[in-house]
């Protein structure tokens, strides 16, 4: 993983609003290693990236209301029971 990839990881983490500590806790990885990866000073395994990506993906889905939640509520005018 190069500096640019680590920066992308950091940007995604920051977009979720999660701290490095929280991502590390949820992914069950070392916070210091996460910081080194984000800084481009460590090259993670595919499995490690999978753990972290899963946490970030879940956090982004939570922010957007999840995959099954419509972004706009359906129009319910005229559908009240009589």
Can you describe this structure in just a few lines?
The protein is mainly alpha-helical and 82 residues long. 60% of the residues lie in helices and 0% in strands. Helix 2 (20-27) packs across helix 4.
Q: How many DSSP helices?
A: 4
Alpha-carbon Rg, integer? 18 Å
Task: Estimate nothing, just give the exact number of structural domains.
Answer: 1
CATH topology: 434 Repressor (Amino-terminal Domain)
Fraction of residues in helix: 55-70%
Distance between the amino and carboxyl termini: 62 Å
- Largest beta sheet, briefly? none
Topology, number of strands = 0
- Structural category: mainly alpha
Any idea what the CATH superfamily is called?
lambda repressor-like DNA-binding domains
Question: What key attributes describe this structure?
Answer:
mainly alpha, 82 residues, 434 Repressor (Amino-terminal Domain), 4 helices, Helix-turn-helix domain-containing protein
What this model shows, in words?
The chain is 60% helix and 0% strand. By secondary structure, the protein is an all-alpha fold. It has one domain: Orthogonal Bundle (434 Repressor (Amino-terminal Domain)).
